Queue: 3 jobs
Job 1
Amino acid sequence: MTALEPSTTPGSSAPGGLVKSVVELDRVVIRLAGDSGDGMQLTGNRFTSETASFGNDLSTLPNFPAEIRAPTGTLPGVSSFQLHFADHDIMTPGDAPDVLVAMNPAALKANLADLPGGGLVIADSDEFTPRNLAKVGYATNPLEDGSLDGWQVVAVPLTGMTLEALKDTGLGKKEAERSKNMFTLGLLSWMYHRPTEGTVRFLERQFRRKPEIAAANIAAFRAGYNYGETTEAFAVSYEIKPAPMAPGRYRNISGNQALALGLVAAGQRAGLPVFLGAYPITPASDILHELSRHKSFGVRTFQAEDEIAGIGSALGASFGGALGVTTTSGPGVSLKSEALGLAVMTELPLVVVDVQRGGPSTGLPTKTEQSDLLQAMFGRNGEAPLPVIAPRSPGDCFDAALEAARIALKYRTPVMLLSDGYLANGAEPWAVPAVEDLPDLTVDFATEPNGAAADGTPEFLPYLRDPQTLARPWAVPGTAGMQHRIGGLEKADKSGNISYDPANHDLMTRLRQAKVDGIAADIPPTDVDDPDGDARVAVIGWGSTYGPIGAACRRIRRSGRKVAQIHLRHVNPMPADLGEVLGRYDRVVCPEMNLGQLALLLRARYLVDVQSHTQVRGLPFRAAELAAVVQDVIDSTTPTASTGGTQ
Amino acid sequence: MTTSPHVHDLGMPGTPIDANIQQAIADSVATQGEKQTALKARDMKTDQEVRWCPGCGDYVILNAVQSFLPSLGIAREDMVIVSGIGCSSRFPYYMNTYGMHSIHGRAPAIATGLAASRPDLSVWVVTGDGDALSIGGNHLIHALRRNVNMTILLFNNRIYGLTKGQYSPTSEVGKVTKSTPMGSLDHPFNPVSLAIGADATFVGRAMDSDRKGLTEVLRQAAEHEGTALVEIYQNCNIFNDGAFDLLKDPSTGPMWTIPLVHGQPLVFGPDGASCVVRDDFGGLRIAETNQVDASEIVVHDATREDPSYAFALSRLSSQDLRYTPMGVFRAVRKPTYDRMMADQLEEARTGSTGDLGALLAGNDTWTVSA
């Protein structure tokens, strides 16, 4: 919903004597929907950039089909981009749009059900041809047959006006038509008072080798803006004031971008070359793309022949002293499992990024899910523990990547970083950190023997652990006198030689577990948001549900109820105080985009009767729905003796 | 650190970010003295008990490699041996170098990451016919086409030894084993043909028991810049004993072995009775030397850019090993992957400030003032 009580201010006088009013809103959710060839993602990203530079808080939800170009004008080919922006800080891309821009009948049909009654539909009337209507099963034109009476509909000949605006450019009809997304962006930029210079600069940069295309897009963009200013179809424009944010320098950033930059920063702060071994996979490929552009920071990217070679090469590079990284999504993790076991056994630093998507198998490649948690925890043969870290927002992917690298380097272990499709493609304003404030990840390579043979000659013991961290020394090839052999066979304690000794295997298995468990002492206590400190019900989440859960908690608190939000960044090991924290609450609700994987872990670890609330729709939770679920729990929680008794 | 007078590029990677690795190496030299390059075979041995079956061909290869490696003048610290799974893959444990005994089939991938990020190292892969051609076939062909600087030793015993005797991807058709009591059905790979088909820049073949021939092929492979594949026929005396006797037996070996010597005519057999000539379809065939004109006999040229000739050579042999060329099939120069990767990094660095703060900020920022 838009602001409850919009305040109308007298507007400026537009050319032609038209008086337009300006309505002030506190937030808006816009969904742009069109054919996958219509450039909706680009349009959405541009609107996002304009909105970010204007200073609103924002959150985005791109939603596109796995097919690159499904048949034009069909329902499977619909691609959409939802943007929520506000004059205050927000946590989600919005439960439902206030405004739906439909570039064709398919886009309208696929998205109308999400638009609450009274919402605004802006439709390209030129695309509502009998042929296009028939493709999606409309018997009559919904723009004319009254079926949209419950909504405000503005039918605009976007295509025709774009062609008209470009008629003198010499571009063919087909090419000129492709600029209709920029015409639409221009119109929206006028409607919401967005700054336009950034988009003009972007188009000039994007098409610098095709100046005529740049000029056409800019002309269409300006024509759309001017159309808004002059047309009678839109009598109102909207103002959403900048959101108060902490002072600092900001940029707009997507999760995959932030994650990639976090890895570059980790390499720089560790003083190590970053080596990425990766095989392209949706929705993780953009990390490979981004990192491949940063060779000047000593980042080596290797597009491997398969997922296994991706992790194998990264592990090989780690053996050589690099920060080895491999990026993938769930199906790729399945393929990497054996090599992950090798990384656990060889105790080398390695960051494994899983940008989760809908599963199982190929599943829903472009949709989001959190269903790889148990795979990350247990998806290997043998007792093969490894730390698991999950970012909570697109910008947080940066910090999570640094944290994953920190733990990998300090504890000499593979670390699983669980992002997801929603974080990967979603974007938000991000406070650009100062380099000197980033953690120092310097590592010490082993350069001299740490033990002595029976005859007293110094020797290097590759599995002689640091008593504090239980990490083994990292001696890279090339280091004089430190030759040693590692591998997947069980290693003898300290010497690292092959050992089939039962007691040694028992010891080593427990040591590997203790090393990972011990990281709990090196991470912050549980992150609890319980404003009054006396909530009886807590909602616990991990990863990208942070935003929707947070938004739900705000709603609940606005209704006068009390609720605590607990969020886990470190999923393995969990914070040392988590059991005690959970014990403070009468009820614990755990919403997840899977069938209850964290809930299973919490129940097993802490014997807490966690109430699991799950959904696997390929989309983030809606805050209102979550709030309703949690409110029911709060309202059905009776006072317990400990909190309600008077004795 | 010392710079060793050998063929491998031991210049440290030039990126400033690799400085910490360079520093660690310098520190180790400062405390433990210069790396030694004047080594003997015994310097290559470890204190680990070698645990192959008595009589295994792997012992012979291990001895040959330990004797040969010192002649390269590379310090042990600058060598890394990566292996997969199988009998041969225990090799690293017995070599006093850096090593990784990894997982089944993946050694070329692991070695690729190591070699691509550390061009200063001499990287070796030890693998077997099952490891390299069955479970790891994909990694092998991609390593070969990429031409990363490493040397792959493929011990081919034409059987699965460590799992106790199933047929392998190089076993002859009809092989009766535990898993194929009525004989195997699948056609075997010829590893040399496969490698040449993948455009490998160096492909050689040697016999475990032929110390001289093996050493010569190893030397050329080690000196080659790029990925070198050496197929080593290796006898498994437990599960496939005598697999190469046709070539080893002095009474039959010379008849069926075609020694490959660069620049020499391909004449072989007792008294040079047989030779290799071109056939009518662009391939090669065996002929009797006294039946052809000397000018028709093919003169071996391992440096031919077009792999067709080397491939044709590899097709002369049959599954039962008659007419098996031994030696270096192909040795051509092409840019190596690791060098090109280093060059791209270097190119990216010129003209870039390498300013992390600027990278994090990107092109589009706005400032919120207090």
Job 2
Amino acid sequence: MRMVKMRMVNMTDNTKTAVRLLGTAVFMFAFGFLLVPLYDVLCAVTGFNGKTAGQYVSEKAPEIDKDRWVTVQFITNNNAGMPAEFRPKQRSMRVHPGEVNTAEFFVRNPVARTITAQAVPSVSPFHAASYLHKTECFCFEQQQLAEGEALDMPLRFIVDNELPADVTTLTLSYTLFNVSQEALAVAR
Amino acid sequence: MITEHPHDSHGPDKGLMRWVVTTNHKDIGTLYLWFSFLMFLTGGVMALIIRSELFQPGLQLVQPESFNQMTTMHGLIMVFGAVMPAFVGLANWLIPMMVGAPDMAMPRMNNFSFWILPFAFGLLLSSLFMEGGAPNFGWTFYAPLSTDFGPPSTTFFIFGVHMMGISSIMGSINIIVTILNLRAPGMTLMKMPLFVWTWLITAYLLIAVMPVLAGVVTMMLMDIHFNTAFFSAGGGGDPVLFQHIFWFFGHPEVYIMILPAFGVVSAIIPTFARKRLFGYESMVYATSSIAFLSFIVWAHHMFTVGIPIAGELYFMYATMLIAVPTGVKVFNWVATMWQGSMTFETPMLFAIAFVVLFTIGGLSGLMLSIVPADFQYHDTYFVVAHFHYVLVPGSVFSVMAAVYYWLPKWTGNMYDEALGKTHFWLSFIGINITFFPQHFSGLAGMPRRIPDYALQFADFNMISSCGAFLFGFSQLLFLFIIIKTIRGGEKATEQVWEGAHGLEWTLPSPAPYHTFATPPSDLNDAHG
Amino acid sequence: MLLGGNAAMADWAVNMTQGVTEISRQVYDLHMIIFILCVVIGIVVFGAMMVSMILHRKSRGAVPATFHENTKLEYLWTVIPIVILVVMALPATSTLQDMYDAGESDIDIEVRGIQWKWQYTYLNDDPAKEVRFVSSLSTPRDEIENRATKNEFYLVEVDEPMVIPINKRVRFLITSEDVIHAWWVPAFAVKKDAIPGFIHESWTIVDEPGIYRGQCAELCGKDHGFMPIEVHAVSEEDYEIWLAEKQEAARVVYETIGKEWTFEELMATGETVYQQSCAACHQLNGEGIPPVFPSLKGQGLAVGPIAAHTDIILNGKAGTAMQAFGTQLNPAQLAAVITYERNAWGNNLGDHIQPSRINEILSGGAQ
């Protein structure tokens, strides 16, 4: 009986199945591309992996906690294949939670070609990452550096009042990646 | 209890084309099993190259870049080429006979899912001869080592993995459909033999995670060739994302390689204890819980990547929980043996060794789940010892047990018991000499995947290498025993084993080319 | 032949090290508790199997019982493991909380994995006092390739070890330049992955002075097995002396850059630098391992224009394994190794470059 039933399956059912499967495949393919933004959202919410959120916009001026000092350390590194000279102009800052601070980073392209750079921020310890708000950062966009070009890049940030009490030092690391087309072309 | 039917007289095609075009589940099962054995030997040769290099400190046989290719290919071939196809082969042979079905539900797809495999592994193995060499980033192929820093052959590896994935998914669909739709009338799910149950659950795991593997290698492909940055921080991606996706596939994958083994052992122990399996229902529930838990523990492979404490604690607790259903299984097997009337033929020896050595591997797994201690164990030989204990005397021994157990049914001839026992003891001693010392070298601080090591690890490595050669060459005896049995020997009876229960033992030995064209009616004996 | 009764025998170990920190001892105790529990479980289970295999065999005339389930028993052996697991989880949780404690540190060291060496930077608010150096394997190739007797610390020795003071909280900020590495010192129970683009931290307070060795613990490519870690824990006074020496040495190097180096001096220094920093890929004979690591002998940039040759050594080549050595080596070492490559293995170009010129290029002078 079962075998007979299987032969009687009509074409429209098969077409339906095919369309559904195709739809699923397309959806899964799109979902693949969605994974990175989704993972970023997860990281931004949880501070997972020391990732910081994007640009911070606050509705009201935060209250400054004059009684508390937090040290913010800056570390810079170049990823493989990035020749630029890149360093923080100040190694660390002592700040009050709530106040708006400005730090500067120096970058210079020493090679005879234009390079496109992307700075990737990371904060340690993790559980502090979501309490470091950046209102302005060179890491929000790629930097085009012409031959020999030198830049001072600003970062404006606020340490949140809610920063857990056990955190006295925050380390903000920037890694400069070479995302020039030619670097990608060689790499891939 | 086979009812003769005119259709049964239709035999296999003649010559080589029989194997190419076959849609018969027994032929395809045989193909899978031989393919798996071939891959087992290929991966084994690589393991012996690794162990030869590690016999003494210093570089002797291979350079570090070839060594990395060997470890990578050994892992990929053993996981995807040896263990998984072996279990699919057993499923093909046994599931239709155990549930009283005439064949697999989708015979042509069955043929296709096997014949993809030689091409997939041909592609993978061909990369050994390419400029830049074979994949050298470990079987876990972590980005960015496998993307920005991978050899040109990575693309071939990706297509190879895609093909294996397609094969596994088609195989699983076939198994699920067969089990759910083609059971003999009256065989309810809770009357199925445990091997069928474990494979049903395994097939669902495969369908759930093989697309994840396909996804992750596709993302790699895009990163390598199409300038995306899924796994590169410079473009907004994250290398750790790779590890999350990989292990979301990888952890269920390790259960895919062990659940069918549970099924095999649950068939063999009752037979030779001449006593019904203890706690059949709890076995089914335990298998299901293990399968469920396998989806929510993946990050225990990544405790050192830097996970917030809440995450570490969650993954530690969830991982420890797996010990509960696994413990239930082990206790049930022991209770099955208890007050039985045991004899120790080769399949039983392998099954008992499975229970003991798998338990050792399980206990070291429990140790690995403890996060602070894992910081010391992670990526050392302790981990190597752990997963080889669950995979070799675990999965591989269960396949060997299954082959000895069902070989008389497949060929109609009994294997040579004395040779079988010799094979068992050589393998058992070899495997323990190989992997037990690795616990010590791992605890003493030897990292895995290194071609050369500090002098303090020299003794254990030398012992380990000797054991590996003993185990490796014993497998030639296994090959000899199988060929000898196929060619002749004492004729096997229908039931073969005094204590065997189940539909496959009601068929003649060897099992005719077509069986259960008419569903069997007497199901009282379906599981032991 | 292998150990020859040398001191490596003393290190012959079958168990995890107790280590030299509060945390590492906690980890060791945890490991032992769980290990002993596992052994007890093993004895009970395997004992029951043994008894059964001896007593309940057919050859002794055993008749099979017919029981095949017992709900009470099954509940019992579900509940007992849960209780054991809780007993294990409690100390594990408390140790983990201790490890994750983010207290204020005395010294911050950035640890950066580079294929196949470690770069250590002792962070300092004053850039002039920042100490940065690369620590790489110092075992000679001859020992690795079995042409010389292996020394006691074969493969776990480095040219420049990390130095830390005892009884101070040292924070490690761990990152990577290229692929994922893992920084592991068993004696501190510190193992953390170094991930390109991200920074992770770990910390330790060492009780006892001594030399502690570890290795990279994450497969990172060809020479993963050859990137050891060596940490010298010394008294606080000795640490201060060492630090001052390091700072002074950096100043001296800086000053010698200005002097005019002879060709012979450059070649001699260059050979040493080449062996430490280049030979792993381009091989001692300069022939490399094509196509990944190109040959430098009689072809390519090493016999081309000196400006392009300098550029690739200083800045690396994007997308290949060629790193930017401009930040890893000092100008004298850079000038020496460039000169060496242009004149070794029969390249014999006869030209050379002065450290002062490298310094100009690095600090923004026109090429």
Job 3
Amino acid sequence: MLNEQRVILMSRLAMHEKKEGKENKSIGTYFRSDYISLRLIGAVIAATLSFMLLFGLYILYDSEAFIDGLYRSDITALIWTIVKYFVIFVVGYSLISYIFFAIRYRKARNRLKVYFNNLRRLQILYQRERKEKKQQ
Amino acid sequence: MILALLCSFLPMNFIVIAAAILCLLHVYALSLEAAAVIGILFAVLFLLYFRYSPKDTLVVVLLPIAFVCKIPCSVTLAVGLLGTPVSAISVACGVIVYYALHFVSTLSKSNGVEISEMATKFKSVVDGIIGNKGMMVAVIAFAATVLVVYLIRRMNINHAWTIAMIIGALLNVLILFVGDLVLTTQVPVMGTILGALLGFVVAMVIKFFVFNLDYARTEKVQFEDDEYYYFVKAVPKVNLSTSDKKVKKVKSSQGTGEKEAGREKVVRKELSARR
């Protein structure tokens, strides 16, 4: 006989595994701090690369003015200005990334909790069925 | 042709990557400088945003196509109805990509001699993309539309989805026209209105499939246990908003009809207060 409750539970579990199960499981293997710090490293690298690309575009955009500026102004001051913009850019982006990944981690943990709860309920259903069969 | 065939069965994000590479190759055929600028734009978008929301990448492909078909409003309304507030960033990225590619294509159409002169200068290409007032207005208009549609369709009111679509389409047209008046962006009046109307119709079709029947969230899953193989097709129930609940009169007599109506009002008020 088909057990309707069991089919519902198994469908929910299968849907979770099919949709976001893999991602949630991979997130669930990390501690919160480990997960966020790993992602933040990625964010810093991405921000650095983006800054370099944008800075390169700026140099190409106005190369003459940039070279003139190199000759005329103090190079240390120019480097400090670039570093200042870089730090603002990277810190700002990392802060947004931190919030994003903290929320993502919390959501994934909650979904995993529901998933394991359903697994437990399924196990209980199976145990009950086995008992009933033995009694018969 | 081969690329289209590959896109049909490879993951969704492959379409985006393939489209980006194809665009870059076409732009490269025009000029190296323009290709470099567009390449940097794509790389920055990918590094800063699409690494985090790979599901939204399709918007960047769909929006330029919708712009070419003169119905960008349809994609915007659909994103507002089905997406999250963060999707507004994806829409903004899509608008930027369209205007950047449109600028390069107008360069190619305008004058052959001028292209080679202009394209050799990064400055003119970057100025053409960043200094485009029309793009700025469009970015604001479409991002605001997504946010407004999202906020209204989440509200606890009757016909929230339809109201969201109407207000979203109107807001989109309004911002584009105000932008045209203030910055003279040369927005085609009839084209924009017709585009918004067509967008509304497309959004209504999406609403029919997603809201009434919710086929979009249908899941087909397979699993097995000791006794059976299961092939399950799960169609989610439509979530009715609480305002759709109605208080039914169980008993009513002719003499006490008005009193009953009064009580009904009180019950409704209490229910709405509890919500």
